């Protein structure tokens, strides 16, 4: 085969496979494994797989924590599959709070776009890093560390947290302790809280035992 024809054949081969290597839009109808979702057939991918509009709407803050998180993770936004990132919208009504929690699969960076948010995290040596953020300010929360956000003023606050994973995971400390069937006696021994307080929190958060 002449060299020019060989090179031309290679170009055709690689160009025909390029789209498949550029991205892996999630096939949400397929199974999800540790590596994420399988890829949607490239021929069925459209621009809408890479656009997410739901974050334009405020979340419902009529709840016990007066807060709402609207995620654009892989389950809602298939285009982020395999890209190592995702985003969400955080709405905090006056008095609102996102309780102490962790994201086992990702670091988080938070940008405030309205209001004031008191945010902080606790390092593994129990050092506390705490700051009241205003519009345009950004704070980062390292992967796996306990952190929280609280509305720091009497006006609604809005922020957009972004994550270093399309599926960052979430564990809320209060629900881990009081929102399941972990026996009250064990919680009492491991947290030093009294039985009455534990049962009160279980009643509020839906726990039993």
What features would you describe in this structure?
There is one protein chain. By secondary structure, the protein is α+β, with helices and mostly antiparallel strands. Helix content is 22%, strand content 29%. The protein is built from four helices and twelve strands; from the N terminus they run αββββββββββββααα. The chain has helices spanning 3-22, 173-178, 184-191, 195-205, and strands at residues 32-33, 36-37, 67-72, 86-92, 97-102, 108-114, 117-122, 128-133, 138-141, 146-151, 157-163, 171-172. The strands form three sheets. Strands 3-4-11-6-9 form a five-stranded antiparallel beta sheet, with no helix packed on it. Strands 8-7-10-5-12 form a five-stranded antiparallel beta sheet. The model is unreliable at 10-19 (pLDDT under 50).
Keywords:
apoplast; metal-binding; single chain; secreted; 5-stranded antiparallel β-sheet; Germin-like protein; alpha+beta; 2 domains; manganese; 4 helices; globular; Jelly Rolls; about 210 residues
Radius of gyration: 22 Å
Looking at this structure, what is the CATH superfamily of the largest domain?
A: Jelly Rolls
In order across it, which strands form the biggest sheet? 3-4-11-6-9
Largest beta-sheet details: 5 strands, antiparallel
Please give the domain count. 2
Shape: globular
Number of helices: 4
Write the layout of secondary structure elements.
Layout: H1 3-22, E1 32-33, E2 36-37, E3 67-72, E4 86-92, E5 97-102, E6 108-114, E7 117-122, E8 128-133, E9 138-141, E10 146-151, E11 157-163, E12 171-172, H2 173-178, H3 184-191, H4 195-205
Antiparallel strand pairs: 1-2, 3-4, 4-11, 5-10, 5-12, 6-9, 6-11, 7-8, 7-10
